[in-house]
Amino acid sequence: MSITLTNQDQATLRTAAYGAVSLMAAADATGKPHKVATNGSLALSSATGLVGHVLAAKSKDIELKGKTVAELADHVLPALTATMSLLEKQDPAEADNFRSTVLVAIDAATRTHHGEPSPTLAEMTRKITTALNAA
Questions:
Q1: Count of alpha carbons within 13 Å of 39, Cβ hemisphere only?
Q2: Angle between helices 92-110 and 119-133 (to 10 degrees)
Q3: Is residue 12 within 8 Å of residue 79, measured between CB atoms?
């Protein structure tokens, strides 16, 4: 099946994926959010398929606005759900690819710390997973 994504669809996908990593970095209470963001972003750069091509495209359309974690979440969590819904309609396999790509990225982000993730990171992971599964 061929998928057609508009420029806006691609921007939403990029915002959702990179926004999930940004939420993890914002939720990190250990003072190492740059490592969380770096590990998560590197994981996103290893994506394959259509998702990988969209994430690898050089673009300035990623919108990660908000002065607080709550404001960022208000923008990113719906973008995750919208992207999943769009991809599910066009190609369920690509929707699964997007879900697994984001989950690998947030897993990579939490592995910045040795041992279990902090309760804050665990809760943000739950919120991101819920948004991915809401479609």
A1: 18
A2: 180
A3: yes
- Report which DSSP code applies to 118: P
Tens of pLDDT along 56-89? 998 888 888 888 999 999 999 999 999 999 999 9
Name the band, by pLDDT with cuts 50, 70 and 90, for residue 33.
confident
Two tokens, residue 91 = 């190609």
**How big is the chain, counted in residues?**
135
| Domain boundaries along the sequence of the chain | 7-133
Q: How far is it, in rounded angstroms, from Cα 21 to Cα 27?
A: 10
Q: Is the dihedral of CA 43, 18, 56, 81 positive or negative?
A: positive
Tokens of 118: 């902090």
Q: How far apart are alpha carbons 73 and 80 in whole angstroms?
A: 10
pTM of the model: 0.92
